Amino acid sequence: MKKPIALLAVPALYALLILSNLNLSSCTKSNPVTVRDTTYITVNDTTIIKDTITTGPSILSMLTGKQWELDTVYWNYTGPGTGSLIYARGGTGNAEDFDSWYNTFTIDGFFWAVENSTYLSGQWNFINSESNTYVNNLSGYGADYARILKLTDSTMTVYDSTGTALDIEKVTPP
Fold first, then answer.
1. Per residue in 73-90, pLDDT tens?
2. What is the mean pLDDT of residues 40-58?
3. Taking CA 152 as the corner, what is the angle to CA 151 and CA 156, rounded to the nearest 5 degrees?
């Protein structure tokens, strides 16, 4: 009995589809796949792993070369939930007026401030290896020790251990 050609074509077509599917599902070994900052590259069945480390701006670059203004000040601050709010920029009934206080840290260790049109100058430097605690020596005021609790390009939260105050400062708008 002679088999019809159409019946023979079905298994051949089926085999062709399986082989083409296998070919379509194989991976290209030259394209890297990035997963959670790690790049995996497979070349000739050897996997090379390259970790990517992204670093942000340094504490020094975020702190210096900007004019900072006081935004909020708490007095007698000893930890979260303590202290008395004595100043809030734009607020009414402030116990202290820091509306005209501006300060700038320079990269070469100088510090200057303006308070009620009076210019104050001095020197500052980091005093620990983490570069988050500094001493500020303003002329006429003496040494002031402070620790940076939070620092971004536009906001700085400082604990002033000399005056037991928590200062939140912002970069002065241009």
1. 999 888 888 889 999 999
2. 65
3. 45
